[in-house]
Here is the input.
Amino acid sequence: MKHRICKVTSVEVAGPHRLRVGFDDGLVREIDFLPVLAGAMLAPLRDPALFSQVQIDPEAHTLVWPSGADFDPAMLHDWPEYVGALNKWARELERQTA
Here is the structure.
């Protein structure tokens, strides 16, 4: 399977857990991250103040947060293909920690 090389070129907070993300191929995608914010690395991003501190990493060209959280830029680009599996993973993490 060939892994797409994508670069995030812009990001804008579009809501409490939503971002509008632009890519080097011109695609702009609005993503609701709340359903996948689970586990030690991603759950802290449920805090809107932390979530809004998103930046674009200048080397990896993806979204990063001060907490160390990040997302693969190809996953962000092709979000509809991944969101189902990510939601399932997040629900399983929540069950394990409940």
